[in-house]
Amino acid sequence: MSEHGEVTTLLNAAQGGDAGALDRLFALLYPDLRRIAHAKMLQTDERVVLNTTSLVHECYLRLLKLERLGAQDRAHFLAYAARAMRSVVVDIARERQALRRGGDQVFVTLNTAAEKTPAGEDDVLLVHEALQELAELDLRLVQVVEMRYFVGLDNGDIADALGVSTRTVERDWERARSFLYAALKQR
Length: 187
What we know:
Number of strands: 0
Oligomer: single chain
């Protein structure tokens, strides 16, 4: 059986309640998931996420908590995993910002100089907010961004996953890039 066929079989088993299917699926796609996590790490400040392996493992833990895995094939699953990784990175950035601002601690400082914010944390949150804003306008554009930018799928694979033409994916990518550029420029 080909890898794509095995992935689909494991996804169906996981949706059917087979607890070990997700484990086997992660083992099968682990190199792809590490590649996605590594690309995610290159886009963010290294202080946001500990390392590639921890990001993949956090993604796995998040997917384990789901009641139902909604992916039908390899491309959908990798896009789903990329979204989970993005969520992990955003949560860590928010947590670090909260801690940097005092979190639940009460303290008094005698220094009036402002603390410099690591650029990566703010950038991660800005991109996340811009993608949330874009999702309110057109969810498919966000899916195209996630599959192309975070997963690294080509336009043909994205088109297959979304059930649209390659030309539609190309137009969606251009619209999403324009929107994100304008949204980030305003911020």
